[in-house]
Amino acid sequence: MGLVLEQLRLQQRNLDGILDQLDAIRKVLITPRLTKARELSRDGMENLQKGLLPEALEDLLKSAKENRTDFLVQLQIGKLYLYGQNLTDDIIDLPSAENHLRLAARYANSEIQSLPDAAKFCGEAFLHASISCYAQANEKWIAGDADAARHFTEQALELSQNATRVYPQLAEAFYHHAKFAALLSDGETAQDSLKTAILADRNYCLKADADRDFDGVREYVRNLFLRQQAKQKATPVFESMKKVIEDWNFQCPEAKQAELEIRKLFQQAESLYRRDTYFDCLDALPLLEKAQQIFDPIPQKEAQYQRRKLETERRRKEETERRKKEEEERQKEERRKREAEEAERERKEQELREYRLKNKLCLACGAKLSFWNRFCNRFRIDMHYYFRRHRK
Fold first, then answer.
1. Domain-embedded: residue 210
2. Does 380 fall in a domain?
3. Among 2, 212, 197, which Cα is nearest to 97's?
4. pLDDT tens digits, one per residue of 238-290
């Protein structure tokens, strides 16, 4: 299984690409010796893909002799010594596997600063080195050498821990670290590392449940699997978001939009939470946390909205009062103008009346009158007919 995965993962072009990057970093010329090493490693990979394990190992060993610090070649040699078995060949050599894998980890670690991709290969080298120690521990245990078995198990624990530090994305390293800690009866360490592995890939939950190496700390494993732990972590967030949805009054447009998203996330989380299983509670927690993150800025936005609303209302009232005062001033001004015009009209009428009286003119039409009359005959005749029409 390891060789099949390796053939799919490390094609020859990938090896060449990594080596080209190393050459570019080092800024060296391609020497005949390095070219020979490249050719030998390429031949070894081709033989490996064909299933010719001894021939592949021979070519890779020759390549390592020409270029000892090539961590990719050392890694392949170590894996061949560790997993090199098929229907026709068996080249497994655990001490040699450990030696070459430690070298691969050491050389890869030296390149991490200039070549970040080397961290992945360094982590893998540490992991497989720990597996080689674990396999040697099993051999010592079968042989009845408990002290040597414990020594190799401790070495495996240390190497797997190095793998988790160098390349934390390697979930398999955390699983094996938990496995080796369990063999050493360190339940807390096993629980913590297994938890990290399960969060990365849930299949490790089933794998650990069937792995007899965890029997010594099975109680810790069961506690990790209990849904109550996940539910206890999810419950406060669930109740908090439930109270928010029930009690909070979303008013501003941004808050109303956030309310829709929060309700949608909460419905999804509630559906998972009600199932009351370990993984469902784990799935519900990030949904609830995301809903909480969406809600966190809402109170501040609502306060800003209320301040803007009050400010707008205050300005509206001030504008209304201003317009009301302006309208009152306008009406007062119009009244003053009308009163002034009326007073001017009465003054002019009074002056006209006094002028006509003084000059013996008809008060109605201004015609010349006799001494004792105040209105002319024509005016009296007009008024006579006027009153006759209105009496009828």
1. no
2. no
3. 2
4. 888 888 888 888 888 888 888 888 888 888 888 887 876 667 777 888 888 88
* Alpha-carbon distance values, 146 to 7, 161, 190 (Å): 36, 22, 21
Token code pair at residue 378: 């024509």
Q: Give the Cα separation of 286 and 391 in Å (integer).
A: 100
How is residue 255 written in tokens? 């808050």
Distance CA 357, CA 389 (A): 29
Per-residue pLDDT tens over the stretch 2-34: 444 344 344 444 555 565 566 555 544 457 787
Q: Which of 302, 323, 348 is the last residue of a domain?
A: 302
- Residue 299 corresponds to which amino acid? P
Q: Using CA atoms in the order 247, 250, 254, 256, what is the torsion angle rounded to 10 degrees?
A: 100
From 166, 167, 230, select the one nearest 198 (Cα to Cα). 230
pLDDT tens digit sequence for 131-176: 999 999 999 999 999 999 999 999 999 999 999 999 999 999 999 9
DSSP category for residue 143: T
Burial class for 196, CB neighbours closer than 10 Å (0-12, 13-18, 19+): middle
Residues 6+ apart with CB under 8 A from 42: 12, 15, 16
Residues 67, 74: Cα–Cα separation, whole Å: 10
Q: pTM for the whole thing?
A: 0.59
Residue count of the chain, please give it. Answer: 392
Q: What is the residue type of 257?
A: Q
- Of 105, 123, 144, the last residue of a domain is 144
